[in-house]
Amino acid sequence: MSRNNIIVVGTGDYYVRVLSRVLSQLEEENFANVVATVDITERRRSEYLTDVEHRVRTGGRLLSSLLSDFSELNPIVFLGHANPFHTPDAIDLVKNGYRVIIQKPYCINHIQFSDLLLEVQNSASAICMLESCQTWNAVLLAFLAGKIKECVFSSTRDFGDLCCDTHENPLWFWGKIEELIGAPRYVQSNILEGSAEFGRLDHRGSHLIDLEEGGGMIQDLGLHAIAPLLTLESYLGQVVDSNFDGTVRIARCQEYLDMVGSHFQIPKERIGETYAEIRFTTQIGIPITVLVGKYVLGRNERNIVIVGDHGILNFDMTRMTASVITNYASTQHLLRLQSLPPVQYPTIKDAVNELMDNSVLTFNVSANNLRTQEFILNILKSIRYDQEIPVYSQYAKLVQINKGFGSPVTSMRL
Fold first, then answer.
1. How far apart are CA 285 and CA 8, in angstroms?
2. What is the Cα–Cα distance from 175 to 144, expressed in whole angstroms?
3. Closest alpha carbon to 350 in 341, 337, 360
4. 65 in a structural domain
5. What is the pLDDT of residues 286-309, one digit of tens each?
6. Is the pLDDT of residue 219 over 70?
7. Does any domain span residue 253?
């Protein structure tokens, strides 16, 4: 098997914590060969890939020019740098014959979205939109929907071992979502992060804060909460379209505002939200609630709950489990993944495979992710950031945040 040559653009926190480790393992498996990294500064120290060449990008130099001497290697360029550069750099690279994997958000405004959409229409096979939940945290959702190749749980260990204590053959559950819980009635998707690791205030760059640079939690976490639901469109009806016809309420963390005020010169009306409650319905009228936020609860709560006519599914995206309660508590199953690979290992590997038309998912992942990105941009367009926005204290409970909205809405956690 020939190795896939990879260049990484952006060597910040995500590279150090996640990407370098995964790529190092893929090198050990002869699946990948990291030939270079790129950033506007020297590479941050990591225990992995220490001998890889690093290039410093200066003066806004085009990546296609900076990397031209690698072109004969036909490399895949992983774009994990600052948000505003994802779209223009992807377009520059693709137009010059490179393949790219784009970290979210793929674009920061509707102008970039139009530019990226046009490039995707011309060169779809060269562009992968990376989203981790569909092939990592929420992979069991794709399994129960029958939207992932069944063989990945029977013949490979890329996702760990699939187990179920109540059924001798856990593969029986593949594609059985409607059989298990009946027709859908309600969906809630929560991506709430408040643990010490994910609720930090000290590593936020301006591009994660400033709305004009793609900042705010709707851009940061909204894709993770909404994109996996598109896996279920044959069950739920069309989840997103080119418009947003719903409601959204946002709040900001006071400690976050204090940090921004002391480190950045960003006008208050451009400071992105740290918490959002989004409500909308699918094309066939199934109500969906999405909660995204950081600096809340003092813990992480990442789950997708689907209520059906005669049962409930709860996908715990932290523990990598799916609990199935049928007939409202008479029968309960727990599907779980154990012996897990490193965080996002299957996500990165499948992104490379997608560019070779060999994804483990049985639908066009990048097309769905781009649809979700447009939907998120339309959600943001509906928000008035120049008005008074409720504020909450770090680690606040949702009921405390909701007091600022005027009516209580709680997280659905089973």
1. 42
2. 5
3. 360
4. yes
5. 999 999 999 999 999 999 999 999
6. yes
7. yes
